[in-house]
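It is worth pausing here to work through a concrete case rather than discussing structure prediction in the abstract. The textbook approach is simple: state the sequence, then state the predicted structure, then interpret. We follow exactly that order.
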Amino acid sequence: MSSNPLPPLARRVPVVTEVHGQRRVDDYHWLRNKGSRPVNAYLRAENAYTAAMMKPSQRLQDTLYREMLARIKETDVEVPYRDGDYFYYSRTRKGKQYRIFCRRRGSVDASEQIVLDANQAAMGHKFFSLGVFDVSPDGNLLAFSSDTTGFRQYTLQFKDLRDGRMLPDRIEKVRSIAWASDNRSLFYVREDDAKRAYRVYRHLLGSRDDQLIYEETDARFSVSVSRSRSNEYLFLTSHSATTSEVRSLRADEPQATPALVLARKPEHEYYVDHGHGLFYIVTNDKGRNFRLVTAPIEDPSPSRWTEVIAHRNDVMLDGVEVFARHLVAHERAGGFPRLHVIRLADRSEHLIDMPEPVYSVGGGANMEFDTDVFRFHYGSYITPDSEYDYHLDSRQRTLLKQREVKRYDASKYRSELHYAVARDGTRIPISLVYRIDRRRKAAQPLLLYGYGAYGYSLDVDFSSTRLSLLDRGVIFACAHVRGGGEMGKHWHDQGRMLHKNNTFTDFIACAEHLIREHYTEPSRLVIEGGSAGGLLMGAVTNMRPELFRAVVAEVPFVDVINTMLDATLPLTTGEYEEWGNPNDKAYYDYKSSYSPYDNLVKKNYPAMLVETSLNDSQVMYWEPAKYVAKLRRLKTDGNPLLLRTNMEAGHGGASGRYDYLREIAFTHAFILGTLGLTR
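Step two, the predicted structure:
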């Protein structure tokens, strides 16, 4: 990468505020003026600078793109799943950016009907994202939503699958939906101006007078609607980060008033499903890792509960799928997910065996209630995504499909599990993968990934694009730091609110462990994280810049204080229970101590690529833009600092699969370039 081009320098326009008696100066507040000429000019100048700096790597970018494209099966068909009278599936066609959704009636050998061609729906748009996709119980009508900006503002539409006609009904700002049994009534959730899902409406096809069913008035809570697999009940769930409340409604009585299951109580989370004339309730009333109980529908109060799965300190109950004769519990133990089967007739139980010690597993498209076959997805760092049918009684499994990865030999790669020791003595898991014949006893290039927020677990999934790094001798490692959910709910608790600093020091401990064990060294260590993981990148870079060669921060949440003080922004109030409310001085002071934007100082920093999207609704583009502007003014080194803004996308970047591969190739080229691996 050339250092010849001169980087743009954002003008400083001080905006002074006072918070808790402290004077705050923000020189780059003006970058919030989205769509203005100065903002557009600055973002495009940064893009031009990044393009110029990365121009020497264009051949490498093209090589990486061709490699990644050559590994995938461009024309492919997913495994069909049954829902009612139809078998549904999606397929891709070579040269097409998006999926084609199809079905066959009665048999997988019947004639194909295209339900929705996303390529046609995306025509004329540079961005396209499909939201909800739900066929009415009788199979005649499709309700689907789409976003063409990246702002995750979805418009709901309806298609008559009998003749292919689009219905005139059109509803804006829709989140979740659920069909009633009459095939004419549909419940949907609408978001407010801050993108909080707050109102539930009942829509009758052809009507313009939708009825407000429920409004969530607490700004910390969002609401969603769902339909039970039994198809007998609809559920309206209000939830914050720590508390939930559910209302139920018979699916065949759409005009009825939803009934409260249990009134909300601070710190009580519960979620409800239905089967066998009972409510199945996953609840944390007896411990943070949840348990499973049943309750009579007519009186679901705790005094009437019957325990099915007890709370366990070492096992997290993530959720339960209810079937006619079985339950399948999604659990997490020892850092890894697992599937726990219970046969209802005799309460016998077993775990589904997994072939590797380091893996990921999750449920597939299990739409049928009356079935003894459970579909699940399996994968690992070594094994491509695989889809199985598992016979719950015989315990036999059938491999339906393994994702075809061309020019891939699994025997050439190895995964490992390590543990770093945090400063308080906690053991932090590190999963890693490398190509065996490129492994050296001495330190080598390593990419360390991290997230650590919202209780979200980073599972060890397969990535065909990652092979381009591994084949060049780069080790890929993932730090499963606190704030995530890998080790249960307590793992999340220890990395949020006033314990957030554990996330950052855990990550540093993981980096130091990998250096100490001679997997890498600071001059060969690149780190990467996105969104809340971008906050992690910013924090650890401020804390220990000398520890890393380069940093990739994708849509990073870096302007923590300013964002969390602005309740008009999406996600702000709803996330007080994750980060704390800075209007409370204790939280303000604590967050001020780690907010990346607020803690930039004059010193040397690693090479850095910061990526964002203009229409991001989760982390506004101005956060990374302000961060780069301030860092460029303060940094005292000559390392590259690049800001790349996708001017036509949102939080997830490019929407088309080919465009997405181009973005990955660009990022990988930056990583490899900083490591001196330019071929």
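Step three, interpretation. The chain has a mean pLDDT of 96. The two ends are 13 Å apart (CA to CA).
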